[in-house]
Amino acid sequence: MTPFTYSRAVDAADALRQGAVAGASYLGGGTNLVDLMRETIERPGALVDVTGLSSGIEERGDGTLLIGAAARNTAVAEHRAVRERYPMLTRAIVAGASAQIRNMATVGGNILQRTRCTYFYDDDGSRCNKRAPGQGCDVIGGFNRIHAILGASPACVATHPSDMCVALAALGAVAHLRSARGERTLPLTDLHRLPEDHPEIETMLEAGELVTAVELPALPMARRSSYRKVRDRASYAFALVSVAAALELEGGMVKDVRLALGGVAHKPWRAFKAEAALKGRPATEANFRAAADAELAEARPLRDNGFKIELARRTIVAALGELMGAYA
Ligand SMILES: Cc1cc2nc3c(=O)[nH]c(=O)nc-3n(C[C@H](O)[C@H](O)[C@H](O)COP(=O)(O)OP(=O)(O)OC[C@H]3O[C@@H](n4cnc5c(N)ncnc54)[C@H](O)[C@@H]3O)c2cc1C
Ligand code: SF4
Question: What is the DSSP letter of 53?
Fold first, then answer.
């Protein structure tokens, strides 16, 4: 591990001041960043601990829920308002990692955790454009079973690993950001980037910009929502494919629907095409399948991950079918 300094910020202004030092990184629970430092994939010269930022979970008068960036994953999953009003978020968080890691991990860190592409972690022998821009990508032509089927580029086919972010994308969550230039908000679906020619640039954040909170909209339909994760082991494994879904029916017709996919792209993938294909249509399995097909029409499998297309199709249909049960 490369030597570094450690300091603790008391609030966002303090974090921005301390984070302005060249080579500084923010530290949440450290469950991803510290691993990357041990592997010398990341070598920050200064760590600014941001767990002193707000960890509150505030139910606001307009029906929105504001979750501080330092809130631990466990605290979010267990919060009464989250369990009752956004069950897909509780399920997504609990489907991730282990209880110990969720107790440490923060909301800000979860959003900004880095890919689990095994070649990205293999600093000794593999070429990786994300780790060393312009170097090439050994996954293309290598073993690519866990990689992306949507939105990838010849430069990078990595996926975003977060379960929580898939639910946040489906819910229409908004990230609250703060930098030296001031505060702004960004829909979560616009926060992460597709790889294009620059997979090393993973988000739309400016240098040193902080995530200070995540806002969930008042979304009554989210009370009937769920999260399905398909993985190689029943626990402690990242998603091959996951689906966050919410469904609102009226007289057997789909009045509204929210769908997002995990494990398939460089960012949490909101399935806007599937949603558009379903709205106003009868809530039937055939229509769920047609909606999945609409979303997956542009899927481009690699040598080893063609199975993800059918898996995603079936998981979408199953997740919506489960929600139909809530209306029975
Ligand atoms: C064995 C293992 C299994 C796992 N399995 C899963 C899984 O199945 N599903 C899943 O979703 N995740 C899984 N994870 C990942 C885990 O969820 C993340 O490591 C965790 O959410 C990261 O949060 P953290 O607070 O520890 O982030 P840190 O490691 O502290 O930081 C991560 C990144 O976020 C940045 N950062 C942190 N806070 C802020 C902020 N407020 N503003 C700006 N930048 C910030 C840091 O600089 C760093 O770049 C697993 C991790 C491990 C180790
Ligand atoms: S897929 Fe992306 S992260 Fe993985 S080795 Fe290739 S460039 Fe690196």
Answer: S
Question: Which amino acid would we find at residue 161?
Answer: P
Nearest-angstrom CA–CA distance, 324 and 327: 5
Q: Identify the residue whose C-alpha is closest to ligand 2 atom 6.
A: 137
Left, alpha or beta for 22 (phi > 0: left; psi -120 to 50: alpha)?
Answer: beta
Helices 285-296 and 307-325 meet at what angle, rounded to 10? 140
CA 144 to ligand 2 center in whole angstroms: 10
Copy the structure tokens of residue 58. Answer: 């505030």
- 146-187 confidence digits (pLDDT tens): 999 999 999 999 999 999 999 999 999 999 999 999 999 999
Residue carrying structure tokens 């972690």: 121
Token reading at 200? 């090393």
CB 167 within 8 A of CB 242: no
Provide the whole-model pTM.
0.98
Residue pair 236/211 in contact (Cβ under 8 Å)? The answer is: no
